[in-house]
Amino acid sequence: MTSQRGFSLSSWESVAAAVEKSNERDEEARIALAKAYAARQVRREQLLAQTAAIDRSTAKYSVLDRDGECPVIRIRRNFIRLSTARPRQEDESWPGSAEERLKADVATRPPLTKLIHRPGNALQAYLSMLYVAQVEVEPGARWRNERDNNGPGGWGELFGLLAPDTLNKELNLRVTRALTRLAEHDLVRVGKERTRNRFDRFTLFREDKRQVYLAPSETASRSLPTAFFTAGWHLVLDNREMATLLAVVDQTGRPRARRDAHEVGEALPESVRWRYYGLAPEAFAARHELEEFGLIENADPMERLHGKLSDKQREEGLRAPRITLKLDGFDFGRPAIDVVKDKLAATPVPPHRMDHARTVGLLDKHGLWRGPAPTGRPPAAAARGGRTPRRG
Description:
Blueprint: H1 9-64, E1 72-76, H2 77-80, H3 98-107, H4 111-115, H5 122-136, H6 155-158, H7 168-184, E2 188-189, E3 203-204, E4 221-225, H8 226-230, H9 233-236, H10 239-252, H11 261-264, E5 266-267, H12 270-277, H13 281-284, H14 287-292, E6 296-299, H15 311-316, E7 322-325, H16 336-346, H17 354-359, H18 379-383
Antiparallel strand pairs: 1-4, 2-3, 5-7, 6-7
């Protein structure tokens, strides 16, 4: 059957099916963008609540490195990257069931991504320990833990957990929870279970083996500017962002990296991210936040639909985004928590998703959110954009 305009019934059905498919994709995009919007609101609120505690922490860091004699903090490469690649994701040696496959995945990751498999502040705590250990002793000398866990100047404060209204019981619980996780991963040694004060005067271990900690040599490590820590970036970045940043730092520093990587960026293809760094696609997506905060720069040679490659693009060959570190010359004089709060307040969704949010009708002409309010938040707050007040 053919209409007067020459369209067959099957043609109209094809058009209708395409429209329906497009509408489904748009609705999926709206749901994903609404979740991204809600996540930014929650994160800003959490940072507001953490501001006093992180300010206290970074104030202590500045005192520890008052003379500026430690320009960088070194982190062993084996903490970040496996020395030998694990099998590809499609390799038949991986277990068949999803549950067993996940267990095998986590078990074969490097210490960094193994540590962040479950949410928590263990990574922030461990990086704080590395900072303190390296600014307090000379390279090659053994560092001894002589701090209390709680109270002014204690580990809880250095981990960014001690706010003016924090109860000692709550502080102790959060510190011991982090130490328990680190002990499970052989990054610290604590006392025997069910012994009194088992977490006091814990022993710091190396990043890659169960040995008493000594600061690594330059050749065995990668480094971050000490100012990265005194600005509080290791306390403000989430686990995905920190792991992705360290992977970029490591890949950029490798001998086989392009000599012009500082100009064109460093590639981190999916196979390398998975086999050497244990980075899942969800974690590597944090590169967009790192760019938003000014720590890296992304250059994606492939046009991606909703952040993904089309089937045709995959058939033609996956080209990885190129990433350029921007730590040299970065303004670490401004507290990380202020930078991140302002960036989160500047746009309702991540900048790289703003155009898409406009396309599906979630932003008005001024770029303000017009979609659903996050669950549990009053509509008025959402209408205001949930903007974070500036520090007083």
